[in-house]
Amino acid sequence: MNSRVNEEAGLYDASGSLLIKWADTTIDIEKDRTADKTSYSHWKDLYPNTKRVVVPDGITKLGKSAFEQANVDEVVLPNGVELIGEKAFFLSGLKTINLPDSIKTIETQAFAMCPLTTIALPSDLETLGGQVFTVCTNLKTVSIENKLREIGENVFAMCDALESINVASDNPYFISTSGILFDKNKTVLFRYPSNKVGSIYRKNN
Q1: Residue 61 in contact with residue 85, Cβ under 8 Å?
Q2: Going by C-beta distance under 8 Å and a sequence separation of 6 or more, which residues neighbour residue 92?
Q3: Is the distance from CB of 93 to CB of 138 less than 8 angstroms?
Q4: pTM confidence score
Q5: What is the DSSP string of 138-204?
Q6: Count of CB atoms situated within 10 Å of the CB of 49
Q7: pLDDT tens digit string along 63-109?
């Protein structure tokens, strides 16, 4: 497959040997292999000045590790993206991202160890993989819409600044009480925000 950099499509500051694959409406950004084929140069090394990326229309998936360790501050996604792959923004500098309502799945560790401060999950999102926001130590608030039905393990682990997780009132699977995330029947406590004001929760009978 031929590699190309498509600046007109809105991938800014792209140069050098980074591979961007355009096939089956999928974007996968691969690590550049060195001559010995065993070690990798990451986006952060190849493009240290890249701060904003606009993903072009027609893309429906961000592949595994697409922006892993990238120094980008902001990524703009088009409507039509349905999946954000495993570790897509892992350990990146991501501070701002729009998540279009078309997204249905966010895979494991997609945003782990990012400096995000707030995130509004898409209205059509159904599945949130494990450890998606693990060690997002600046994350303060999360909003969950009504179609989310599956949450993986340790999604908000070590989110030390997390104050509240809010859930749409018509979500049939989850509920939020005072910013605390439960299943709809309030028999399973999924997450007590690490930085929630007040250290005691009492369940009313």
Answers
A1: yes
A2: 67, 68, 69, 70, 71, 72, 114
A3: no
A4: 0.78
A5: T--EEEE-TT--EE-TTTTTT-TT--EEEE-TT-SSEEEETTEEEETTS-SEEE--TT-S-S-----
A6: 8
A7: 788 888 888 888 888 898 899 989 989 999 999 999 999 999 999 99
3-state secondary structure (DSSP) of residue 44: helix
Q: Which residues pair with 176 in a beta bridge?
A: 181
By the 8 A CB rule, do 148 and 123 touch?
no
119, 98 contact by CB (below 8 A):
no
Closest by CA to 164, choosing from 153, 154, 156, 152, is: 156
Q: In what order do the strands lie in the sheet with 174-177?
A: 174-177, 180-183, 189-191
Whole-angstrom Cα distance, residue 38 to residue 15?
22
Q: 20: buried, middle or exposed (CB in 10 Å: 19+, 13-18, 0-12)?
A: middle
Q: Which two tokens stand for residue 180?
A: 């605390």
